[in-house]
Amino acid sequence: MTKYEIMFIIRPTTPEETRQALIEEFQNIFTSRDSEVVKVDTWGLRDMAYEIQKHRKGYYVVMDVKATEEARAEFDRVIALREDVIRHIMIKDVR
Question: Which residues on neighbouring strands pair with residue 37, listed in sequence order?
């Protein structure tokens, strides 16, 4: 398994219940595919450096995971379909 650090930004207009359900859904993608979610850090509502899709703020979430290739690919597929997520990045953790 490979270690990844994932950051995604959720629209600031998304209700709290929907945000929590979205974060849990992303965690379940990994846990249901023989991967491990090491840490989830919710930074909360923050100002962004530049406007994205007419939003100046976003709800930031950072996840550290140990994932299989299958789980990584499924996460990329699912997060791209979610309209509540306005940006995401997944980088290989070399620590």
Answer: 65
Q: How many domains does the chain have?
A: 1
Structural domain boundaries enclosing 58: 2-92
DSSP code of residue 12: T
* Average pLDDT of span 70-85: 92
Cα(95)–Cα(75) distance, integer angstroms: 22
Give the DSSP H or E segment for 73: helix 69-81
Q: What is the CATH number of the domain that holds 80?
A: 3.30.70.60
* The model's pTM: 0.87
Residue closest to 63 by CA, chosen among 77, 82, 43: 43
Strands across the sheet with 55-67, in order? 36-52, 55-67, 2-10, 85-92
| Integer Cα distance of 62 and 64 in angstroms | 7
Q: What percentage of the chain carries pLDDT values higher than 70? A: 99
